[in-house]
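Quick one: Carboxylic ester hydrolase from Jimgerdemannia flammicorona, structure tokens please.
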Amino acid sequence: MRLLLAVFSYILVLQATFADALPLNSLIKTKSGLIQGFVDKITNVVNFLGIPYAEPPIGALRFQTAVPVKPWSNVFNATTFGHASVQLPLPPLKEAIFHQGVLLDQSEDSLNLNIWTPNANSKKHAVMLYIHGGMGLTGAGSFPWHNGQNAVSQGDVVYVTINYRLNAFGWIHLSTVAPNDFPNTTNLAISDQLTALKWVYDNIAQFGGDPNKITLIGHSAGAMSVATLLSLPDARPYIRRVILESVPWTMQTPSGYSKDIASAFLGALNLTAETAKAVYNLDVQTILSTTESVMSSNTNFIDGLTPYALTIDGKQFSEASLQALANNPPHGIDIMHGINYDEFHFWTQTRPGFADTTEEQALAYFAQVFEQPQDAYNIFKNALPAGTPPYEIVNRMGTDVLFRAGTWQLVEQLAADGINAYTYQFNYRSNAFNNTLGACHEIISPFTRDNVAIYEQLGSTLPGFGALPTRADKEKLARNMVATWTSFAKTGNPNNKHIPKWAPYDSDNHNVMMFAYNSSGYDIGYDVMQSDPDAVLRNEWRRQLSYWLLSNLENLYDYEYTDFVTTAISDEDCYSC
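--- reply ---
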């Protein structure tokens, strides 16, 4: 019997060793051990799901930096998704949109990744590694919108998604209050992501990928993570390109604020700096409930921000990512990034009474954001079409504060440093919820991997979601997006036969590719490159707005809610993606 097992094991190793000479085998030999995947019968894409890249962060490893996974001796069965990270429940609307009816199997033992690869080994494929968003609170690499099979089958790339620790498990910074017992407990989620990146770099060649062509992609909080990794000297050697989708540039907290949150977290558990080590023995639900209670009691941040975020700790990170990239430009790394036109609609448009917002309420909301709220409001009011209502001015101000202003700052800096960078704006204006969502935050995600069939499911099951583009138009836009994203991953140039010529961003022309421009409801619009489409506000940010905002940056995390915020903007439906 032992002889038979030995012969069988030898055959398995031979299969994995000589896979390069054959169509990609679903059994792969990696530095961590043998991994068994499967070939999808419909797409002919090889799936490897739930692969551990780090030791489970449990017991003594809870609230510690990620530890690379130890090699295993048996064949790892990678035919089903692994655990998702433990996370807070979403309100019903967000639950329907982002979990898409998937019941997540959650656990602290969640540091795993998924790989989709072409069923061929004739060449080394470009690798696209996606870091999901979720405001640092929710999400998983196994979500249907993140599935990489269609991107692989259409774009001939290798696609990877990862999990990382969320909420307090990934973003509570205990080093700020108990440095002796928790010397390395800051930015744990970043340590997870870096460990996953290194695992992919070390092993992806066995899956048909080229380790020297890794494109990091992130959306929202995931894009903030990608920008952070890009600023880290330890991460840059593993990165060839990055795609930043809707980066919330203000999602970085001063160390003093992080200390306040860590103290509040321990206090809610009846712990102090001296007794903090007791967190090792607490059950998961207690920690998760405390995470939520700290959020609920600490409503001192505007929509789109969270108390659980990267901290500028003065050690690993001594400055914000934008400043770090300016001081140490990422030469040799191609960059593509952009935003959705109506990002802030995600937080505001489904809330009762928001359309009745007055100018006075808008000014109260932004009083802690801009030093001169009335002047800032007037700048936006004058830049937008005459008669734009106050609630829509609030939406544009929120979009700029969280996303657009930082995007402009980065691309201007990249252009000045001579870095190859492309900028886009996604404009598909969904008519969901009576035409209120528009091109809101997250709406781009199904298109970049051609998972827009999820839209059809939502349209038939979610009340109020509204009409959808026709199948032909929907597939055309998705095809364009997949071709563009995968072309960039392969060459550093997003141009392809499906879109107009797209020139890199430069300081003279400020080129921006407008996807689904002039779209509405069933009309998908068209793609067009424009020169400086938002010149007025871009110049106002450079001239004055950024100074009013930056001088008040810490106030974004010390915000007392007004009646307007509690009734019109802030409710339980506060989670981002």
